[in-house]
Amino acid sequence: MNEKYHIHTRAIHAGQHPDPSTGAVMTPIFQTSTYAQEVPGGSKWGYARTQNPTRTALQECLASLEEGRHGIVYSSGVAAIDAVIRLLEPGSVVVCGDDIYGGTHRLFTQEWVRYGVEFRFVDTTDPNLEIPSDASMVWVETPTNPLLKTTDIASVARKCTLVGATLVVDNTFATPVFQQPLMEGADIVVHSVTKYLNGHSDVIGGAVITNDDDIAQRLMWIQNSAGAILGPQDCFLVLRGLKTLHLRMERHQFNAQRIAQWLQKQDGVKSVMYPGFSGMISFVLDADLDTTTRFVTSTKVFTLAESLGGVESLIGMPAIMTHASVPADVRREIGIEDGLIRLSVGIEYLDDLVMDLSMALKAAFSSKSKG
Q1: Which end of the chain, N or C, is more open, meaning fewer C-beta atoms within 10 Å of its C-beta?
Q2: What is the pLDDT of residue 180?
Q3: 329-344 average pLDDT score
């Protein structure tokens, strides 16, 4: 779709056209592994690991939303991350944010280091950040997971240009509704489409978007060769989710802003982390681990579960759940306390969410006083 259209319109239409054989308005689920060819090797569609019309529609839509030319989707967010690291040669140096998703940290430090890739963890939010001359890639999450710190993408992009490093931005928490890293100078954008892009907690998937033709060709080769593709049913579900992305993000943000303000006023809440946009909040109770655990297990509307970005509200303790694979000393060093709580604020009625948290706070602290 022509880029002159607003992102809200492109979320509904980009990459999607009425099916020429039936006129179907919704992109069909092309549930096939292979395609008939009129002559050997002469068809656009040959084998579904390489290409699938449903997947192509999703890839084009995601590229449009991020103001990119190329979108490549994978079977999970970490599969997308893995594909990007495969762009590197053994011995490459990656400068990486110190506060990143636990699964990303595990992939980097327990798998890719075995193949000679060096990861140097730094605070990318530091305005005095320096990119060493031997860096091949810089990896940024913004906002970070789980401390919700934000990085000046344009500033880091300029520094990467000076040393010839590729800048990768994980845009999962912000989504293209609030932030478009390619427009700020990033070379590659990564998403877990499992989260806000799909938005309904029923798909696992990942995506990479870029404007660089050479990077895109290499990623497509990796997608086909390694085979970590997203199936047509899941592609269809993500396309469905994207159609309400802008509406959902408005409500996620509305609820989260007000809950963050409410939390800051509550007795027993030591600190609140909220970047001012999107739907993620992290906070720490002024309480021991037992009291914190009682709190997260006392909510009724917020579900105790990993993941984020669905229409339903989730609550979790990163140190025990999403970041359990990160060594405890590393967690403590970057500020992930054992009692840190992360909220994925859904689109339920705001008053119900506040009441749920209020009752859970009372239950947690009243039980402590009784003990």
Answers
A1: C
A2: 98
A3: 91
Q: Is 10 a catalytic residue?
A: no
Rounded Cα–Cα distance for residues 59 and 352 (Å): 37
Dump pLDDT digits (tens) for 123-158.
Answer: 999 999 999 999 999 999 999 999 999 999 999 999
Domain count across the chain: 2
> Where is 24: in which H helix or E strand?
none
Instruction: Give the pLDDT band of residue 58 (cuts 50, 70, 90).
Output: very high
| DSSP assignments along 337-362, one per residue | -TTEEEEE--SS-HHHHHHHHHHHHH
DSSP summary character for residue 115: G
Q: Flag whether 1 is in a domain.
A: no
List 10, 74, 101, 356, catalytic entry: 101
State the residue range of the domain holding 66.
7-242
Active site residue 170: yes
**Active site annotation includes 114:** no
HSE (CB half, 13 Å, CA atoms) of 326? 27
Q: What is the pLDDT of residue 338?
A: 87
Residue type, 43: S
The pTM score is: 0.95
Gap between the Cα atoms of 267 and 97, Å rounded: 32
Q: What are the b/e assignments for 205-228, b being 16+ CB within 10 Å? A: bbbbbbbbeebbebbbebbeeeeb
In the predicted model, is pLDDT for residue 370 greater than 80? no
Q: What is the DSSP letter of 139?
A: E
> pLDDT grade, residue 299 (50/70/90)?
very high
The pLDDT, as a whole number, for residue 1 is 67
Q: Which residue of the set 170, 187, 234, 356 is catalytic?
A: 170
- Residue 192 shares a structural domain with residue 216: yes
Selecting among 10, 55, 149, 195, the annotated active-site residue is 195
Tell me the sheet residues that pair with 281.
343
Give start and end residues of each alpha helix (H) in 73-118: 77-85, 102-110
Q: Is residue 2 part of a domain?
A: no
Is 352 a catalytic site residue?
A: no
Residue type, 197: L
